[in-house]
Amino acid sequence: MLGRLSLVACFALVSLASASPLQLPLGNAPFKVATELEVLSNPESFTTLSNPSLPGYKVRVKPVKGLCDTEVKQHVGYLDVDEDRHFFFWFFESKRDPKTDPVTLWLNGGPGCSSMTGLLMELGPCRPTPGGAGVVPNNYTWNSVSSVLFLDQPVNVGFSYSDDGKDKALDTEAAAKDVYAFLLIFFSTFKRYNPLDFHVFGESYAGHYIPAIGGVIIEGNKDAESEGFPVINLKSLGIGNGLVDPLVQYEYYADMACNPPGYDPVVTDKSTCASMRSKVKTCKSLINACYKYGSPMSCVPGSYYCNAAEISPYQSTGYNPYDVRKKCDSGNSLCYPIMNDIVAWLNTPEIRSTLGVGDIEFKSCNMQVNLDFQLKGDWMHPFVKLIPSMLDEAGVRVLIYAGDADFICNWLGNKAWTLELEWSGKEEYNSAKDKPWTTESGLDAGEFRSYGPFTFVRVNGAGHMVPYDQPDAALDMFSSWLAKTKFTGTY
Fold first, then answer.
1. Is the Cβ–Cβ distance between 174 and 167 less than 8 Å?
2. Best exposed site among 52, 92, 321, 376 by fewest CB in 10 Å?
3. Active-site residue among 80, 171, 464, 480?
4. CB atoms closer than 10 angstroms to residue 336
5. Does any domain span residue 435?
């Protein structure tokens, strides 16, 4: 889910002029960590994992039984960085066959919003009851076909925290580096998962995070074996209703506000719609400056001007920015009552004790983190430039999906940037036909376009959080993508 400042906007600091992959310096010392048996046998306290080649990084982990999912092995813990930054994670094994099923990392966006939203509102094995007194099973959980790892990042998001309580001026590059270090230690300890296919999925501002994480994994894999690190078997990236290419996407806010295909207009004042359209040229000029120079000075003006020009008019209507069909629920700043239930359940003393989070108070989103990312100029960075090399050189498949009722990272803008992406299959992808998509249960779920390793899926009747609005379709899409049974050029 995306964050909200004085306006709502789609939810880096690395120069992408050359679109070079992010890098994490590796050492040459082998991993010396606690064995998996030691981790599994210590349910009451954390076992600490480390590696001398990753100075400043440690992972605390412990097993959890019967919480949220009573059928599978679970682990919770923290990635500790430089003794003062601590990133919370929660891992669920696959219900089907954890020995052969893939592993998927899930990230929510914001920037500054917790991945526990994905776990407890969208694709995890349970959902809170009204009021947050307990949880009930989610029959459409994604860990029915894949082990799933939920990570709260950057620091001070969800149950993640810093020792002094201050934000560490993070950006997408720093976040990707931390995630990669975590994955190295995780896979070196839980070795049975390391040979399995690995996928990175997320939504919203994760449209920034995921290409960056994919880039640093691919770069790290080049020297991993010689340096004594595990090779991460990255197979695909999946981005739902993401902010990936702002230069293209910001052009489509007026269309989604004033003439959303298949839905009633939200912004009905013609002069307001005309104003939104008239400001696109200036908006794109400012984003272009960010794409060219990449500094905070060149990137911050675009985020503030464009969000005010293209998003604020929608927000002023009182409609849900994540779903053009609904008014924003006044009982929660993020528009959904279930968000209050998630916060209540996670802050229950017995749940906090089981998770080992101490006195950290869970909050869905941290708006100071959101502001910090904006002030670093991260918002308008073109992480889209990392995707072509993944498709053309690294053999990584990329799935872009979008609910058709979302405003904030709408399907119009997402489909548009996939058509403008410069890669070897651009001509064939652009000339491909949109094909209908029907789930195994017979649901008319939407349509897709695909060529080679690249696919775009439009999901019918879903807002920003596709697995929440259309759980059947979301699980069908996810499982079919992993199994390569749909969303291919020959389907």
1. no
2. 52
3. 464
4. 25
5. yes
* pTM exceeding 0.90: yes
Structure tokens at 20: 């070079």
* Rounded Cα–Cα distance for residues 21 and 366 (Å): 28
Q: How many Cβ atoms sit within 10 Å of the Cβ of residue 294?
A: 20
Q: What is the CATH number of the domain that holds 478?
A: 3.40.50.1820
Residue position matching structure tokens 């080992």? 356
Q: What is the pLDDT of residue 13?
A: 26
Helix (H) or strand (E) holding 304: helix 296-310
103-107/435-438 β-pairing: unpaired
Boundaries of domain holding 41 = 36-243+380-483
* 69 found inside a domain: yes
Q: Quote the DSSP letter at residue 299.
A: H
Which one of 406, 476, 479, 480 is the catalytic residue? 406
Q: Are 215 and 175 in contact (CB under 8 A)?
A: no
Across the chain, mean pLDDT equals 89
For helices 270-278 and 296-310, angle between their N-to-C axes, nearest 10 degrees: 160
Count of structural domains, the chain: 1
Q: Reply yes or no on whether 464 is catalytic.
A: yes
Tell me if 249 is assigned to some domain: no
Q: Which whole number is the average pLDDT over 377-386?
A: 94
> What 3-state DSSP class applies to 482?
helix
pLDDT tens-digit map of 128-145? 999 999 999 999 999 999
> Any idea what DSSP says for residue 441?
T
333 tagged catalytic:
no
- Average pLDDT of span 48-58: 84
What residues have CB less than 8 Å from 370, skipping those under 6 apart?
A: 3, 4, 5, 11, 110, 111, 112
DSSP state of 12: -
Give the Cα separation of 318 and 196 in Å (integer). 45
Measured in degrees and rounded to the nearest 5, phi and psi for residue 482 equal -65, -40
Cα separation, 182 vs 179, whole angstroms: 5
List 53, 147, 204, 303, catalytic entry: 204
Q: From residue 60, how far is each of 81, 353, 388, 405, 452 by CA, in Å?
A: 11, 15, 36, 40, 40
| Residue 119: closest CA among 89, 94, 98, 87 | 89
Q: Which of 41, 64, 58 is nearest to 353 (CA)?
A: 64
Please confirm, yes or no, whether 406 is among the known catalytic residues.
Answer: yes
Alpha-carbon Rg for the chain, nearest whole angstrom, is: 21
- Tell me whether residue 316 is in a domain: no
Cα separation, 2 vs 408, in Å, equals 8
Look at residues 248, 242, 111, 84 and name the one whose alpha carbon lies nearest to residue 176. Answer: 111
